[in-house]
Design brief:
By secondary structure, the protein is mainly β. The chain has one domain: SO1590-like (AOC barrel-like). About 10% of the residues lie in helices and about 60% in strands. The radius of gyration is 23 Å and the shape is elongated.
């Protein structure tokens, strides 16, 4: 009995010390800002009032509005597909965000006109962004009159988080 209590005490002491061993944890950072872009579209099928199916390519720059200035002056390139039917639109694709140092993050995104929100999830990163996880939601805050047919010029508010493994 006495011998068993000694072992329990030793285990409790070891577990107590184990609480102070640093454990590698991912560091999560919030960010927000505005992405302004120019987008060019290409129709596969455009039947007004019936269906629109096409693709798009977008290029732009991100300006951080968060105190951390995370992703400030990153440039972006996105490609995707869009469908419009019965007044409802949906889209999905991939976005590459690149920092001034050349490291980048690739996101997969999807959205629809009913919610007005696009959600993107980080799926790949290079350099210090290797192993990145994260999500960002964005919606358009301004849109200009297209300067050339089949183009859009707009800005989107983005709010997200990013996490790097330790």
């Amino acid at each position: 009995m006495f011998y068993q209590r000694n072992w329990v005490a030793v285990i409790v002491v070891i577990l107590g010390f184990a609480m102070f061993i640093p454990v590698a944890q991912a560091q999560r950072q919030d960010y927000e800002g505005v992405l302004c872009s120019a987008q060019t579209g290409s129709a596969v099928q455009a039947s007004p009032g019936e269906i629109y199916v096409g693709s798009f390519e977008q290029k732009g720059i991100f300006q951080s509005t968060h105190e951390s200035k995370l992703f400030d002056n990153w440039t972006g390139h996105a490609v995707g597909v869009v469908k419009g039917q019965s007044g409802k639109w949906s889209w999905n694709g991939f976005h590459k965000g690149m920092g001034p140092d050349g490291d980048f993050i690739i996101y997969e995104f999807s959205g629809d006109s009913q919610s007005g929100i696009t959600t993107a999830k980080a799926i790949y990163g290079t350099g210090k962004w290797k192993g990145v996880k994260g999500e960002v939601k964005f919606n358009r805050i301004t849109k200009g009159k297209p300067i050339v047919p089949y183009t859009d010029q707009f800005c989107e508010k983005q709010v997200g988080w990013i996490e790097l493994p330790k």
